[in-house]
Amino acid sequence: MKAHAQRLIAARLGLALLTLLIVSAMVFALTGLLPGDAAQQALGQAATPSQVAALRHQFGLDQPAVQRYAQWLMHALTGNFGTSLSNNLPVRELIATRLPNSLVLAGLTTLVSVPIALTIGITSAMFRGSLLDRALNVLTLSTVAVPEFLVATIAVLIFAVKLRWLPALSYLSDVSSFDALLRVYAMPVMTLCCVIIAQMARMTRAAVLDQLNASYVEMAILKGASPMRVVLRHVLPNTIGPIANAVALSLSYLFGGVVIVESIFNYPGLASLMVDAVTNRDMPLVQGCVMVFCAAYLALVLIADLCQIVSNPRLRQR
Predict the structure, then answer these.
(1) Which of 15, 39, 236, 246 lies deepest, with the highest CB count within 10 Å?
(2) Does residue 73 carry a pLDDT above 80?
(3) Cβ neighbours of residue 114 closer than 8 Å, sequence gap 6 or more
(4) Contact, 289 vs 274, CB < 8 A?
(5) Tell me: the pLDDT tens digits for 99-135?
(6) C-alpha distances in Å from residue 65, one per residue of 28, 101, 106, 277, 284
(7) Are 254 and 189 in contact (CB under 8 A)?
(8) How much is the pLDDT for 1?
(9) Residue 33 predicted with pLDDT over 80
């Protein structure tokens, strides 16, 4: 790999770390602005002022904000996000118990959404300008415009209330067979897939169309290659980088929609843990959850940038 590409990758890594540092400062400052007293919330309304003051001192809440941020940042670099104020357990352990559930939900959503989105995007590009292409464009645009909470609410009304095919809430304790697994994950995965498939399909269509307008495609057509052969043998190998970039960017939207989906379906993931922490004014837990989400989002965006750099010869060889 050329030195220029290595410098670009190093710059992207440095920018991601700087972004993570800025986000950590913003998260720490914003959680400090949450209304109410975290110590009072943890002890209840019957607690005496001396008890509240003692708990604030125990968790270091009576220290200056800058000092608390510096201490928290130093511990966070080692993976220690402190102790939860609401249940007196390490934040790292609470995150470790919920993170696998969120990863399973994200993984199932990826397995379902990526093949469907790539098929829609490639098919739409192959039949550009046709009735099928226009119908798919209208469908994807309409889906992008619908927010996740509305899709989830409509899904609950139709499949849980009206038809009674699926449970309205996702209880992982009910997963005892493959059929139960499908029932529990059906509506959360379907809700997350709606927007992600539409975004990914449109970006895939744009990447394939860009290659279909290239001169080498015209040469292949003049040599008698069929449209299917042109796409499979000539276009797709040259769109691996842009399509990987589209997939990574589209999957980054998971971390916005999963907060809404886990809350609506009562799914025991990291996002619902963060919502409960905000309700309880549990600042260390909120900070830890937000930093995990931010790190995952930046990792996907960084992967998208790296795919763009590696797949672009001008960036590699300049």
Answers:
(1) 246
(2) yes
(3) 200, 247
(4) yes
(5) 888 888 888 999 999 999 999 999 998 888 889 989 9
(6) 9, 33, 35, 20, 13
(7) no
(8) 53
(9) no
Domains annotated for the chain, with CATH where assigned, are: 94-279 (1.10.3720.10)
* CB count in 10 Å sphere of residue 288: 28
What DSSP state is assigned to residue 278?
H
Cα–Cα distance measured from residue 249 to residue 259, given in angstroms and rounded to the nearest whole number: 18
pLDDT at 315 over 70: no
Residues making up the chain, counted from first to last: 318
Residues 6+ apart with CB under 8 A from 270: 95, 98, 99, 101, 102, 262, 289, 292, 293
Residues facing 90 on adjacent strands:
83
Q: What span, in angstroms and rounded, lies between the C-alpha atoms of 305 and 302?
A: 5
Which tokens hold the place of 8? 């670009």
pLDDT digits (tens, 9 = 90+) for 135-170: 998 988 888 888 888 888 888 899 888 888 888 877
Lowest mean pLDDT: which of 49-63, 197-211, 271-285, 297-311?
A: 49-63
Structure tokens at 45: 């309304």
User: How far is residue 253's CA from residue 202's CA, in Å, rounded to a whole number?
Assistant: 14
Residue found by looking up tokens 């930093």 in the block: 291
Which of 137, 191, 197, 186 is CA-nearest to residue 163?
Answer: 186
Which of 201, 202, 191 lies closest to 146 in space, CA to CA? 191
Residues 8 and 142: their CA atoms lie apart, in Å, by 37
CA distance 260 to 236: 35
Dihedral pair phi/psi, residue 315, rounded to 5°: -75, -30
CA distance 298 to 3: 24
Q: Which of 76, 86, 89 is nearest to 37 (CA)?
A: 86
